[in-house]
Amino acid sequence: METKYIDVDGRWGVIVCYNYDEEDKQDMWSIMRSFNMTSKSADKAINILSNYNTGMAVSNDDIRMTAIFVSKATSPSQFWDTLNHELYHANTAIIDYYDEPYDQEGAAHLQGFLMRKAVELIGEPCK
């Protein structure tokens, strides 16, 4: 499993996990549990993520972090589509936590920042 970390001005962290295999399930489970997911929810999420073109985001306000999981994708464009969707969930978690309005430029800039950082860190997602 590849893991990348996006720091949002020291105010929030986003962990992006992708390209995982069967042997990574325990690591995924551990991350999910550290975000206070129940064992049952983490197991269900891992089963869903075993399919292609799926993703999941879980946030924890107490530690000001979001963990994103993106399953194997059928194409690079599908990977980026799924990741962008999950980054939106990170964006909304950050906006909610800091009580910022959704309809302001800040929300759009944050979404762009998250995506730009992901592209810079990940490069070629489907190897």
Describe this structure in words.
By secondary structure, this protein is an alpha+beta fold. It has one domain (2-122). The protein has four helices and four strands. The protein has helices at 25-34, 39-49, 76-97, 105-122; strands at 2-8, 12-18, 55-60, 65-70. Strands 1-2-4-3 form a four-stranded mixed sheet, with helices on both faces. The model has no long low-confidence stretch (mean pLDDT 93).
Primary descriptors:
127 residues, alpha+beta, 20% strand, globular
Number of domains: 1
Q: What quaternary form is this?
A: single chain
Q: In what range is the share of β-strand residues?
A: 15-25%
Number of helices: 4
User: How would a textbook summarize the main sheet?
Assistant: 4 strands, mixed
Q: Structural class, judged by helices and strands?
A: alpha+beta
Report Rg.
14 Å
Task: Extract low-pLDDT stretches.
Answer: none
Mean pLDDT: 93
Task: Give a brief rundown of this model.
The chain is an alpha+beta fold. Helices cover 48% and strands 20% of the residues. It has one domain.
Write the layout of secondary structure elements.
Elements: E1 2-8, E2 12-18, H1 25-34, H2 39-49, E3 55-60, E4 65-70, H3 76-97, H4 105-122
Parallel strand pairs: 2-4
Antiparallel strand pairs: 1-2, 3-4
Helix pairs in contact: 1-2, 3-4
